[in-house]
User: Which sequence fits this backbone?
């Protein structure tokens, strides 16, 4: 027997799948028109970037649902953290550039592989970066987001950090108030910060969580991933 | 070179068709598996771009039917589909047996990526 919650979730999933279509129309149509000589290219470039970002958010939400359901056979695999962060940085760059934000990749040391769902890991980090780029920074001309991997005794931490101070307690409160606040992260962004919740759901399915933390004086969001011990024995 | 585009969505089909034609390809379009076989018989495509998620019969049905004809054994087939990569992973061996050239996840594939994949197939097919 289907519960009310399962029914509600199935409905949301169905809506999300349906939403992908018009977003694809916009993104691909904008991409097509970018090369038309008679049309101002930046307009359609911006349209494409934002439509692709929205498409990715919806897709990541659906992926998070799939990863968390019992029917979905979650295959964690050895994933190169370095190449994953490179790929995420590559994908995020057009969006961040549009928001006058620079992206720096910080890989301190050598990294083997971590046990993760590669598509999920990329989706989660992309969405975190997307939300961080929305954060209000009125006194800063150009912002920097750092995508970082570093070793700790608990594992390899992969995350994204901003150069101005995010009020960490308010972000933690925001996470807790997801269910009863229209703007859970109101002190940081005017948006809903949906990408953070989507990323958290994806990480939860990989038996880790998105947490607020600091790296070299910068605040941000990160998850702890477990190294692939098998390859370390070789 | 002629592309057989098997795409159920009219709007996306128009965008892809315009893109391919802009880059010098001829395009035949079919919305479902049945029409795609008929179109292939008439147009003799050099490359097939196939959405797996079709109405009535799935893209898999088209794949098996298409490859059953001697003339189309070596025609490159690009899957350009809404079905997520994890779901398609289960059919990796089948796709290899049916000589699927590339698998692209449609929501994450730009026109640029799609076009470059088609051009790679065109180069191999010459």
Assistant:
């Amino acid at each position: 027997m289907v519960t009310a919650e399962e029914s509600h979730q199935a409905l949301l999933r169905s809506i999300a799948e349906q939403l992908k279509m018009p977003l694809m129309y916009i993104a691909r149509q904008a991409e097509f028109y970018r090369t038309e000589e008679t049309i101002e290219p930046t307009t359609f470039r911006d349209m494409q970037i934002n439509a692709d970002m929205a498409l990715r958010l919806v897709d990541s939400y659906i992926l998070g649902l799939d990863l968390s359901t019992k029917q979905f056979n979650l295959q964690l695999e050895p994933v190169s953290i370095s190449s994953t962060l490179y790929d995420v940085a590559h994908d995020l760059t057009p969006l961040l550039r549009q928001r006058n934000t620079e992206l720096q990749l910080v890989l301190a040391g050598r990294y083997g592989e971590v046990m993760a769902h590669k598509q999920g890991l990329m989706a989660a980090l992309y969405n975190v970066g997307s939300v961080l780029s929305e954060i209000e920074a009125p006194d800063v001309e150009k912002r920097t987001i750092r995508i970082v991997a570093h070793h700790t005794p608990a594992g390899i931490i992969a995350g994204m950090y901003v150069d101005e101070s995010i009020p960490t307690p308010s972000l933690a409160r925001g996470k807790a108030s997801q269910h009863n606040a229209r703007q859970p992260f109101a002190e940081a962004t005017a948006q809903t910060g949906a990408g953070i919740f989507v990323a958290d759901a994806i990480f939860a399915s990989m038996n880790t969580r998105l947490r607020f933390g600091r790296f070299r004086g910068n605040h941000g969001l990160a998850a702890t991933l477990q190294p692939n011990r098998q390859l370390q024995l070789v | 070179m002629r592309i057989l585009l098997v795409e159920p969505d009219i709007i996306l089909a128009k965008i892809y068709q315009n893109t391919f034609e802009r880059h010098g390809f001829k395009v035949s379009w079919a919305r479902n598996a049945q029409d795609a076989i008929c179109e292939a018989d008439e147009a003799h495509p050099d490359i097939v771009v196939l959405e797996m998620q079709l109405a009535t019969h799935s893209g898999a049905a088209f794949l098996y039917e298409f490859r059953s004809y001697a003339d189309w054994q070596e025609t490159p087939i690009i899957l350009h589909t809404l079905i997520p990569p994890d779901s398609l992973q289960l059919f990796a061996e089948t796709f290899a047996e049916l000589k699927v050239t590339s698998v692209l996840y449609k929501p994450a594939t730009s026109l640029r990526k799609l076009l470059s994949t088609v051009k790679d197939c065109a180069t191999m097919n010459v």
Q: What stands out?
A: The beta strands of chain B are 2-6, 26-30, 47-50, 77-81, 100-105. The interface with chain A takes residues 9, 11-12, 15-16, 18-19, 82, 84-86, 89, 106-108, 110-112 of chain B (CB under 8 Å). Helices of chain B lie at 10-22, 33-43, 59-67, 85-89, 92-97, 111-125.
